[in-house]
UniProtKB/TrEMBL annotation:
This is Acyl carrier protein. Gene3D superfamilies: ACP-like. InterPro entries: ACP-like_sf.
Length: 92
């Protein structure tokens, strides 16, 4: 799977898992997952991390350990973590 295709799939999973009233085109790679009072993110709380992580692990057959703190900064960093995990899995 190409990285751009994977980015779209990650955005679709976020929208579906969190029941967001958005479309993929509304989410930029730079969109923060956790926001501030000035710039809200897509995640309301840490439960969102568990829900999205579980959905991604199931969809891509990857290990939860592939995620770290940087994975949950932006939509792009989350997609990068998934892409790297998928690529490493394919090399095994």
């Amino acid at each position: 799977m190409k990285q751009q295709e994977l980015n779209v799939k990650v955005k679709e999973i976020i929208i579906e898992t969190l029941n967001l009233n958005m479309e993929v085109k509304d989410i930029l790679d730079e969109t923060p997952l956790f926001g501030t009072s000035y710039k809200p993110g897509l995640f309301d709380n840490s439960l969102c991390v568990l829900e999205v992580t579980s959905a991604l692990v199931g969809e891509f057959d990857i290990e939860p350990s592939c995620f770290d703190n940087k994975s949950f900064e932006t939509v792009g960093s989350l997609a990068d973590s998934v892409y790297n995990a998928v690529e490493n899995k394919d090399k095994e």
